[in-house]
Amino acid sequence: QVQLVESGGGSGQAGGSLRLSCAASGYTASWNYMAWFRQAPGNEREWVAGIDSGGRSTYADSVKGRFTISQDDAKNTLYLQMNSLKPEDTATYYCALSFRYSGTWYSRSMYNYWGQGTQVTVSS
Q1: Cβ distance 93 to 38 under 8 Å?
Q2: How far apart are alpha carbons 51 and 71 in whole angstroms?
Q3: How many CA atoms are closer than 13 Å to the CA of 66, on its beta-carbon side?
Q4: Helix (H) and strand (E) counts for the chain?
Q5: What is the pLDDT of residue 103?
Q6: How many Å from the N-terminal Cα to the C-terminal Cα in the chain?
Q7: What SS3 state is found at 53?
Q8: 43, 44, 71: which is closest to 56 by C-alpha?
């Protein structure tokens, strides 16, 4: 079955960088849509960035210019490079996978598969 396993979370200082990874397995579809979401305590899970198999990427305004989403097709791995971190980036980060595009990258309902999450904590 489809599995998504995140890694790379941890603690960082404001202004620093972290890179998250999401290893995907258990499927053979050649075209997919992957995304990163995050959820801070007491908040809704929010979309951060998305990328399709053609490499087209899109970002939430709150991270545009600071975060970069990418994927290594050979390794079936999704990445999120986070630079210029801010304390408000503190959250549990989840990767998500869909095999169809619903028209709204930011909607949780578009994604059928989710990882278990990795914690990112940014101190000021």
Answers
A1: yes
A2: 8
A3: 17
A4: 0, 11
A5: 84
A6: 40
A7: coil
A8: 71
HSE, CB side, 13 Å, CA atoms: give it for residue 7. Answer: 4
pLDDT digits (tens, 9 = 90+) for 17-62: 999 999 999 988 878 999 999 999 999 999 999 999 999 999 999 9
CB 81, CB 70: distance < 8 Å: yes
**Residue 4 scores a pLDDT above 90:** yes
Name 45's Cβ contacts closer than 8 Å, sequence gap at least 6: 37, 38, 39, 94, 108
Question: What is the residue whose two structure tokens read 């603690």?
Answer: 11
Coil, helix or strand for 39?
Answer: strand
Under 8 Å between Cβ of 78 and 99: no
Number of neighbouring beta carbons within 10 Å of residue 56: 9
The pLDDT confidence band at residue 91, using thresholds 50, 70 and 90, is: very high
Q: Which amino acid is at 83?
A: N
